[in-house]
Structure formats: structure tokens, C-alpha cells
């Protein structure tokens, strides 16, 4: 098991950032290995995280650590050659807990772009808070 985000160059986009405060709650904090920092979305559903690689990679699992009370509920993973050709590959069902959760995909997905869509949140306002996100080959 290899974390693609540590081994490969990648770009990340997110649906929103709380109050547009990127310095405190930006997407970069999902990947900094600091348990005190996080990506915090603004309110509203759905929220999403899009990861793009320069070349095709194999994805077998996803690890996410949410803030309890601000976890994704019904969610799914999309994959494709680019952000315009994404197709849904699998539903995932996160729990409303603080610990890191592992979501094994039904099969290895080969793609350049992956999008995790949080269709709903455990937060009444639809906010998502992620401390850690890993894509695993």
C-alpha cells in the first residue's frame, strides 16, 4: 500500500472553503500531516474534493479523517481521464467519528482524476471538515 499523494505530484481543488479563509482552512491542510490543521468547507451540499494527477494511477483505497459532527454521510467516488469525463465508480458511507476511516474500492480504478463527493453531511449546515485525506494504490 502506497500513498499516492506522497509519491506522486498532484493538484487538488475543493468545492468551498469556510468564509473563503484559505490561510486557516484551505485544502492544503488535508495533506500536511498536522493533526491541528484541516480543510473546512463552507455550508451547503454537496461538497467535494477533486485530485488530479499528471498521469494515470491505480487507486485501491481512500483514507479520510473527519471532524466528528462534520463528516460526509452518503458519499461517492468519481474517476476519469479529466474533470469533464468523470464517472461514478462507487458509493462510500463514512461514519460520524474522529478516527481515520479506510474505504476499500471494489476494484482497482485506473484514472488521472478522482473526485470524492459528499452528497450530505452530519452537520446541519452541510459543512465538511477533513484533517487527513490519503489516496492509496
Automatic annotation (TrEMBL):
Pfam families for this protein: F5_F8_type_C
F5/8 type C domain boundaries: 23-121
Compartments reported by the entry: Nucleus
CC terms in the record's Gene Ontology section: nucleus
Keywords from the named record: Nucleus
SUPFAM superfamilies: Galactose-binding domain-like
Family to which this protein belongs: Belongs to the NR2C2AP family.
Stated name of the protein: Nuclear receptor 2C2-associated protein
